[in-house]
Amino acid sequence: MSHAEREAFGVYVHWPFCLSKCPYCDFNSHVRHAPVDEERFVRAFAREIETTAARVPGREVSSIFLGGGTPSLMQPQTVGAVLDAIGKHWSVARDVEVTLEANPTSVEATRFRCYRAAGVNRVSLGVQALDDASLKALGRLHTAREALDAVAIARSAFDRYSFDLIYARPDQTPEMWASELKQAISEAAEHLSLYQLTIEEGTPFFGLHAAGKLKTPDEATARALYDVTQEVCAREGLPAYEISNHARAGAECKHNLVYWRGEEYAGIGPGAHGRLDIDGVRHATATERRPEAWLLNVEERGHGVVTDDSLNSEERADEFLLMGLRLVEGIDPKRYAALSGRRLDPHRIAMLREEGAIAVGADGRLRVTKSGFPVLDAVVADLAA
C-alpha cells in the first residue's frame, strides 16, 4: 500500500517534566527544582524531528500529540517552535489535529489562548476526579472547582477538548460514580477518557496497597463501575469507541486512532515510542527515558533512540490484533492475514462467538462484544495463540 493511501501519520512529542509526581503514575515524568532550559530542549526536539524525518521522508502529518509529563508547563513559544519544526520537515495536513495535555490549574489555563495561537487545536485535561477528597488522595494539585474553571477556559479557547477521569477509586460506589460521570458529561462536550485506577509496581500507591492502607474496589464492584461507565456514557451520547475512550460521533481522538489502527507514528522526546515503516519493514523505536541523557544523545548524534527493533510479520500481526481489538470498530481479519501470513483460527473464532465474547459483522470485521471487553486480554490471548 502506498503512503498516499495510508494517510494517517502521527507525531508524538514527550515533555517529561511535572510539578509533582502523582502517586499512581508510572509514566516517564520527572520533577526538577531548577527551571528547565526550554530553549535547549526545543533545539533538541527540532534536531530529533529532522533526523526522524530523514528516515521517513515525504509523510503528511495527520495528528500531533504533545504528551507528558505536563506539556502545559511549556511556554507557548516552545510549543510553537516544536510545531514549526514538524512543519519544516514534513508536510502537515490542512485538518491536522494538534492535542496538548494540560493540568486543569488556573496557572496553566491562562496560557490556553496562547497555545491556540501557537497552533494547538485540541486540549486534553487531566481532571481525574470531580471531588476534592479524591483529588487530594490522587495527589493532584488542583481542586474540583479549579478543574471546572479550567474546562470552561478550554471550552472558550478550543473547538475541541477532552478530559480524563480515574474511577474504581478507594471507597467509590457505582452510584457515586454515575453522578460524577453525569456531571463530567455535562462539562465534557465531545470526548472523555475514563480509566480504572490500576496499582502499578514502583509507584507509591503500590506500597500503600500492599500494606493494606489503600483499598481499591473488589472485582465485582470494579465490574459494576465499568458497566455504569458504559451505560451512562452511551445514554448521554458519548458511547465508547475504545475500551477507555468515549466520544460523540466524529469527535474521536485522531491521534489515538493512529495507535489503535496500527498506523505509523514518530516518537520524539525523552522516553517516546514510535512505529516507523522503512523499506517495507515496521520499526519499533524508543528513546532514552532520562531527560538530560536524552538531551546529550540528541546533541551528540541527532537523536535519542536507544531501541530500534524490526518487527517480524508475527509481531506486527500480534500488535495489530492487540491494539485493534480495543476499538469498538474491531479489525479486518484480512489485514491480519496479510500481515502475519496466516488466517486467524476459524475454530477459535467460532468458540469465542459462541461464548458471546466476539461478533463478526456483515462486513467480515471482528469485534469484541460488550461482555467481551471486560475480559479483553483473555480474548486477545485466545485469538493470538
UniProtKB/TrEMBL annotation:
<keyword id="KW-0963">Cytoplasm</keyword>
<dbReference type="InterPro" id="IPR058240">
    <property type="entry name" value="rSAM_sf"/>
</dbReference>
<dbReference type="GO" id="GO:0005737">
    <property type="term" value="C:cytoplasm"/>
</dbReference>
<keyword id="KW-0479">Metal-binding</keyword>
<keyword id="KW-0349">Heme</keyword>
<protein>
    <recommendedName>
        <fullName>Heme chaperone HemW</fullName>
    </recommendedName>
</protein>
<dbReference type="InterPro" id="IPR013785">
    <property type="entry name" value="Aldolase_TIM"/>
</dbReference>
<comment type="similarity">
    <text>Belongs to the anaerobic coproporphyrinogen-III oxidase family. HemW subfamily.</text>
</comment>
<keyword id="KW-0408">Iron</keyword>
<dbReference type="GO" id="GO:0006779">
    <property type="term" value="P:porphyrin-containing compound biosynthetic process"/>
</dbReference>
<dbReference type="GO" id="GO:0046872">
    <property type="term" value="F:metal ion binding"/>
</dbReference>
<dbReference type="InterPro" id="IPR004559">
    <property type="entry name" value="HemW-like"/>
</dbReference>
<feature type="domain" description="Radical SAM core">
    <location>
        <begin position="3"/>
        <end position="239"/>
    </location>
</feature>
<keyword id="KW-0411">Iron-sulfur</keyword>
<dbReference type="InterPro" id="IPR034505">
    <property type="entry name" value="Coproporphyrinogen-III_oxidase"/>
</dbReference>
<keyword id="KW-0004">4Fe-4S</keyword>
<dbReference type="GO" id="GO:0004109">
    <property type="term" value="F:coproporphyrinogen oxidase activity"/>
</dbReference>
<dbReference type="GO" id="GO:0051539">
    <property type="term" value="F:4 iron, 4 sulfur cluster binding"/>
</dbReference>
<dbReference type="Pfam" id="PF04055">
    <property type="entry name" value="Radical_SAM"/>
</dbReference>
<dbReference type="InterPro" id="IPR010723">
    <property type="entry name" value="HemN_C"/>
</dbReference>
<keyword id="KW-0949">S-adenosyl-L-methionine</keyword>
<dbReference type="Pfam" id="PF06969">
    <property type="entry name" value="HemN_C"/>
</dbReference>
<dbReference type="InterPro" id="IPR006638">
    <property type="entry name" value="Elp3/MiaA/NifB-like_rSAM"/>
</dbReference>
<dbReference type="InterPro" id="IPR007197">
    <property type="entry name" value="rSAM"/>
</dbReference>
<comment type="function">
    <text>Probably acts as a heme chaperone, transferring heme to an unknown acceptor. Binds one molecule of heme per monomer, possibly covalently. Binds 1 [4Fe-4S] cluster. The cluster is coordinated with 3 cysteines and an exchangeable S-adenosyl-L-methionine.</text>
</comment>
<keyword id="KW-0143">Chaperone</keyword>
